[in-house]
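Quarterly update from the structural biology core.
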Amino acid sequence: MTEEIRWGVVGPGRIAEKVVEDFAVVDGARVVAVASRSLDRAQGFAARHGIERAHGSYADVLADPGVDVLYVATPHPQHHAIALGALRAGKALLVEKAFTATVAGAREVVEASRETGVFAMEAMWTRFQPAVVRMRELIADGAIGEVRSVQADLGVQREFDPTDRLFALELGGGALLDLGVYVVSWAQMLLGAPDTVTAAGSRFPTGVDAEASLLLGWADGRSATLTTSLRNALPGQARVFGTAGWIDVLPRFHHPQTIVLHRADADPEEITVPQLGAGYAHELIEVTECLRAGRTESAVMPLADTLAVQQVLEEAAGQLGVTFAEDTAVL
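Predicted structure, tokenized:
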């Protein structure tokens, strides 16, 4: 690994536009290439962000010898094929959530990462937010006792547009893969993989899920109540309930700055911990440091957690009558 970690962006869309700006506060890392299936689009992105090389195909960036790690921000069903190609080319990966469109696809990527010894991580920036890190420290120290239940919601109101990616089944549209992944990952982070998944919701005319309420259950009685939606806006708040208190995570919980600790016989304690940059920097720092240290997984966002989250998402989608597929022809 070179002293400077050289990044390539795959899929110059809305999220990538935001993420690349945070490289300004990440030491020893630089974006050197961007790839799109439209060369014009890649060149425009490169010009806006001062990136050296623009590739007009995903295959070209996989073959670029000057790239150490790829940030993959294409639509969900394209992650699987791009990730496999990258791992076979020896390029480390930061893959946007949801990691893939299917559990089978996620499992294949995880197996390839472990077989090749090449680093891979899901870009769940929430886990790296300083306020969330502080919350997990408090929980580990027993501040609220044993965690017994979790609540979280995340939703936005979007007018139905069958031409938009969010409403296209073949592009992995719907609430679950775009927003539900946050609430499910939140519950999994705190409680582990559930024993039961019960989902209720509705679909748009294109077949993707419009909204979903999930009840996750554990054999010992723990539970998580989760809500996600593209039909209506939701506060974006989370709560973690323990046997000795609870923690409020103020909106929006997936990139919070403030948590409030509630304990018996004590006044609420408000704790504010700002992010670096726009908040994406922390996951970029994690990947950069892992690569320098020769790690193949993140301890904060391990691949086993990603697989557990994908399993819940797929089970919930199936209960709503939604089935996704990987795009095997993307390369």
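The CA atoms of residues 123 and 288 lie 13 Å apart.
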